[in-house]
Amino acid sequence: MDKIRIKNKIEIEKMKRSGKAAATVLKRIGEAIAPGVSTADLEQISRDAIAELNATSSFLGYQPPEHEPYPATICTSINDVVIHGIPDESHVVKEGDIVGIDTAVSIEGYHGDNAYTFPVGDISPLAKRLLEATRNSLYDAIAEAKPGNRIGDISSKLQNGAESEGFSVLQSFSGHGIGRNLHEAPEVPCIGVAGRGLRLRPGMVLAIETMVNVGLSDVQMLADGWTITTADGSLSALFEHTVAILSDGPEILTGSALWDL
Ligand code: MF3
Ligand code: CO
Question: What is the pLDDT of residue 261?
Fold first, then answer.
């Protein structure tokens, strides 16, 4: 396991800037989501916003070991797509969809990562319940991100928030530390037991993210090598914030008006 990289005050200040930029990109995309818009259109909006903010996409060209490089600046995950949907002209948003957008950018070498699932017009009561439960569980988890607590305190909030509504959290993908690298130690799973795991310390910065399926937690990968969908075809939502653990508690670095809905 890699070492945890504790950030000093100056680094946290830099991460506030990249977090804010990531949140701005996400908000711009959210404002553009409407029936008839393709996910390729959203990718263009993202590229324009990133350029305007003098930021760099953390996703474009991102290449995990033995993987193709990721070809876009955002992941666009509609309905039963859980994560890593690739923007494409042929994917057109329609009324009633839920559209997960994940985006990360870097400024001065530090990354900020966030995701939000947007409802398109009128969505079903089930979809509404999914979005609310997933979003609320993320906030409950973030409240646990304080010195002295453990990773399991965060993870158990994610898991319980979803399961108490009869939904399930993903087991095969996790949140992560973040800083000079998009993905750093430690892993922040969506399942866990309160009081267990690594102890949290001031200066840790975590991308806390949760992916919740209405049905079973099983997922499959499409032939493009990236897109992850629910195995049972059920709806899925994701929400993510970059959070700094400070001596007096959590600070969300990717906050924006978007989340106050
Ligand atoms: N935001 C995702 C995560 O950190 C990363 C997406 S990887 C990419 O979990 F390939 F899409 F860039
Ligand atoms: Co992330």
Answer: 47
The predicted-structure confidence for 165-202, as pLDDT tens digits, reads as follows 999 999 999 999 999 999 999 999 999 999 999 999 99
Mean pLDDT of 132-150: 98
60, 74 contact by CB (below 8 A): no
**Distance from Cα 34 to the centre of ligand 1, integer Å:** 24
Pocket test for ligand 1, best of 57, 73, 83 (most atoms within 8 A of CB): 83
CA distance 243 to 116: 15
Whether domain 9-260 has CATH 3.30.565.10: the reply is no
Q: How many angstroms is it from 91 CA to the middle of ligand 2? A: 23
For the chain, what are the domain ranges? 9-260
Nearest Cα residue to atom 2 of ligand 1: 102
- pLDDT, one tens digit per residue, over 51-84 is 999 999 999 999 999 899 999 999 999 999 999 9
How far, in Å, is the centroid of ligand 1 from the Cα of 84?
7
pTM of this structure: 0.97
Residue (of 92, 102, 95) closest to 124 by Cα position: 95
Question: Which residue has a Cα nearest atom 10 of ligand 1?
Answer: 70
* Rg (the chain; Cα; Å): 17
Residues with CB under 6 A from ligand 1: 59, 62, 70, 75, 84, 102, 104, 113, 176, 207, 209
d(CA 211, CA 228): 11
**Distance separating alpha carbons of residues 167 and 129, to the nearest angstrom:** 10
Query: Taken in order 143, 187, 6, 180, is the CA torsion positive or negative?
Result: negative
pLDDT given at position 260: 65
Pull the structure tokens for residue 64.
């995990």
